[in-house]
Amino acid sequence: MIRAIVLLSGGMDSLVTAAYAVSECDEVCFLHFNYGQRTEKRELSCFKALVNYYQPIQAKVIDYGWLSEIGGSALTDRTIPLQERTISSSKVPVTYVPFRNATFLCSAVAWAEVIKATRIYIGAVEEDSSGYPDCREVFFQAFNKVIATGTKGEIPIAIITPVLHNSKAEIVQLGIKLQAPFELSWSCYTDNDVACGICESCILRKKAFAQAGFEDPLPYRN
After folding, report:
1. Helix boundaries (H) for the chain
2. Has domain 3-212 been given CATH number 3.40.50.620?
């Protein structure tokens, strides 16, 4: 039996990752983090809707408010402006939350040890993403070594990144194949009600659906 934990933000990439995990695992558990992000309310709403849709055996929401307390990201610190960044830019964007994926994975690994889950799914994207350093394959390879050396070793626990080397358009296509409910996901960095359509994440999402040849079920302000 394969039991897995899925890190589920409510975004497009994590939704498709969840759909993928559901398709190949016997049991799944969903894990969500509130960390003071600008769209925390909407992301939590999406998570709850996806829990209702997929019916995992367990679902947890963890308060990571300390990430907003330390700041350093435009997602958690409203004094840092959200810039309309050029997608091709090689610089790490202002929306990078310092070491966020590592801290999230730590919680997931701890839970995995308790419930005997052998897989942790995360919807990180390296190929066609935002340039975050903690979304690279080398990072996850290193973290798998941390798990192997820092846990009891009673069960093998591995990080699974099914969309890591997919383009955003390919992720949309995979989601359509897996019948992922894109209408229950949220990508906008700025708004909780109607997606702005001009932030980096909205631009990536709109471009992905256009290139994949499917209509995005979400409306946009712009």
Report:
1. 12-24, 40-54, 66-70, 100-115, 137-150, 168-177, 200-212
2. yes
Q: What pTM value is reported for the model?
A: 0.96
Q: Which helix (H) or strand (E) holds 30?
A: strand 27-34
Q: Name the amino acid, one letter, at 137.
A: E
What are the tens digits of pLDDT across the range 48-78?
A: 999 999 999 999 999 999 999 999 999 999 9
Q: Which two tokens stand for residue 67?
A: 């990430």
90-to-22, 62, 124 alpha-carbon distances in Å: 34, 32, 17
Taking the alpha carbons at both ends of the chain, their separation in whole angstroms is 46
The tokens for 66 are 């300390």
* Dist. CA 63–CA 70, nearest whole Å: 14
- What are the pLDDT digits (tens) for 1-13? 999 999 999 999 9
Q: Where are the domains of the chain?
A: 3-212
